[in-house]
Amino acid sequence: MDYDSLTVEAKSVLLTFYKLYCQRIKNGESRLDAREFQDFYLIRQKYFADWTNINDLLDAVNELSRQKWLNNEYSNNVPTIIALNTESIAFMQTRFSRGLKQVIDELSKIKSLIF
Protein backbone atom coordinates (compact mmCIF):
# COMPACT_ATOMS: atom_id res chain seq x y z
CA MET A 1 0.00 0.00 0.00
CA ASP A 2 1.58 3.20 -1.20
CA TYR A 3 -0.58 6.29 -0.81
CA ASP A 4 1.65 8.41 -3.04
CA SER A 5 1.24 5.97 -5.94
CA LEU A 6 -2.56 6.39 -5.96
CA THR A 7 -4.24 8.54 -8.57
CA VAL A 8 -5.95 11.69 -7.32
CA GLU A 9 -9.29 10.05 -8.08
CA ALA A 10 -8.46 7.05 -5.89
CA LYS A 11 -7.20 9.33 -3.10
CA SER A 12 -10.49 11.22 -3.26
CA VAL A 13 -12.48 8.01 -2.87
CA LEU A 14 -10.24 6.74 -0.06
CA LEU A 15 -10.45 10.03 1.83
CA THR A 16 -14.22 10.07 1.44
CA PHE A 17 -14.53 6.55 2.85
CA TYR A 18 -12.17 7.37 5.71
CA LYS A 19 -14.09 10.57 6.50
CA LEU A 20 -17.34 8.59 6.59
CA TYR A 21 -15.69 5.96 8.78
CA CYS A 22 -14.60 8.64 11.27
CA GLN A 23 -18.05 10.21 11.31
CA ARG A 24 -19.69 6.83 11.89
CA ILE A 25 -17.34 6.04 14.78
CA LYS A 26 -18.10 9.46 16.27
CA ASN A 27 -21.82 8.62 16.00
CA GLY A 28 -21.35 5.42 18.01
CA GLU A 29 -21.18 2.75 15.30
CA SER A 30 -18.91 -0.23 15.83
CA ARG A 31 -15.59 -0.26 13.98
CA LEU A 32 -16.75 -3.21 11.88
CA ASP A 33 -20.00 -1.53 10.81
CA ALA A 34 -18.30 1.83 10.29
CA ARG A 35 -15.83 0.51 7.74
CA GLU A 36 -18.36 -1.34 5.57
CA PHE A 37 -20.27 0.39 2.80
CA GLN A 38 -23.18 -0.61 0.63
CA ASP A 39 -22.87 -1.73 -2.94
CA PHE A 40 -21.29 0.45 -5.59
CA TYR A 41 -24.48 1.98 -6.97
CA LEU A 42 -25.73 3.01 -3.54
CA ILE A 43 -22.44 4.58 -2.49
CA ARG A 44 -22.31 6.46 -5.78
CA GLN A 45 -25.77 7.86 -5.20
CA LYS A 46 -25.17 8.74 -1.53
CA TYR A 47 -21.56 9.91 -1.44
CA PHE A 48 -20.28 10.43 -4.98
CA ALA A 49 -23.11 12.14 -6.85
CA ASP A 50 -20.67 14.79 -8.08
CA TRP A 51 -18.84 12.15 -10.15
CA THR A 52 -20.50 12.50 -13.53
CA ASN A 53 -18.74 9.50 -15.06
CA ILE A 54 -19.70 6.32 -13.22
CA ASN A 55 -16.85 4.40 -14.89
CA ASP A 56 -14.27 6.78 -13.42
CA LEU A 57 -15.62 6.11 -9.94
CA LEU A 58 -15.66 2.36 -10.55
CA ASP A 59 -12.09 2.55 -11.81
CA ALA A 60 -10.98 4.41 -8.66
CA VAL A 61 -12.73 1.89 -6.38
CA ASN A 62 -11.11 -0.97 -8.30
CA GLU A 63 -7.70 0.73 -8.07
CA LEU A 64 -8.07 0.90 -4.28
CA SER A 65 -9.07 -2.76 -4.18
CA ARG A 66 -6.13 -3.84 -6.37
CA GLN A 67 -3.73 -1.94 -4.12
CA LYS A 68 -5.29 -3.48 -0.97
CA TRP A 69 -6.76 -0.27 0.49
CA LEU A 70 -10.28 -1.73 0.20
CA ASN A 71 -11.70 -5.23 0.57
CA ASN A 72 -14.44 -5.56 -2.01
CA GLU A 73 -16.82 -8.36 -2.85
CA TYR A 74 -17.94 -8.46 -6.48
CA SER A 75 -20.91 -9.62 -8.51
CA ASN A 76 -20.89 -9.15 -12.29
CA ASN A 77 -17.63 -7.16 -12.00
CA VAL A 78 -19.27 -4.54 -9.76
CA PRO A 79 -18.51 -4.23 -6.04
CA THR A 80 -21.46 -5.35 -3.93
CA ILE A 81 -19.70 -4.75 -0.61
CA ILE A 82 -16.94 -2.18 -0.18
CA ALA A 83 -14.95 -2.10 3.06
CA LEU A 84 -11.93 -0.21 4.31
CA ASN A 85 -9.38 -2.67 5.62
CA THR A 86 -7.80 -2.16 9.02
CA GLU A 87 -4.37 -1.42 7.52
CA SER A 88 -5.91 1.44 5.53
CA ILE A 89 -7.52 2.84 8.64
CA ALA A 90 -4.26 2.61 10.59
CA PHE A 91 -2.39 4.38 7.80
CA MET A 92 -4.96 7.15 7.59
CA GLN A 93 -5.00 7.59 11.38
CA THR A 94 -1.23 8.10 11.31
CA ARG A 95 -1.17 10.32 8.22
CA PHE A 96 -4.07 12.48 9.39
CA SER A 97 -3.29 12.48 13.10
CA ARG A 98 -4.85 15.91 13.65
CA GLY A 99 -8.27 14.46 12.98
CA LEU A 100 -11.26 14.83 10.75
CA LYS A 101 -10.66 18.48 9.86
CA GLN A 102 -7.30 17.56 8.36
CA VAL A 103 -8.98 14.81 6.29
CA ILE A 104 -11.65 17.21 5.05
CA ASP A 105 -9.03 19.82 4.11
CA GLU A 106 -7.03 17.24 2.15
CA LEU A 107 -10.18 15.97 0.46
CA SER A 108 -11.09 19.52 -0.63
CA LYS A 109 -7.64 20.02 -2.14
CA ILE A 110 -7.77 16.74 -4.04
CA LYS A 111 -11.31 17.28 -5.28
CA SER A 112 -10.27 20.66 -6.68
CA LEU A 113 -7.84 18.77 -8.92
CA ILE A 114 -10.60 16.51 -10.25
CA PHE A 115 -13.72 18.66 -10.54
From TrEMBL:
<protein>
    <submittedName>
        <fullName>Uncharacterized protein</fullName>
    </submittedName>
</protein>
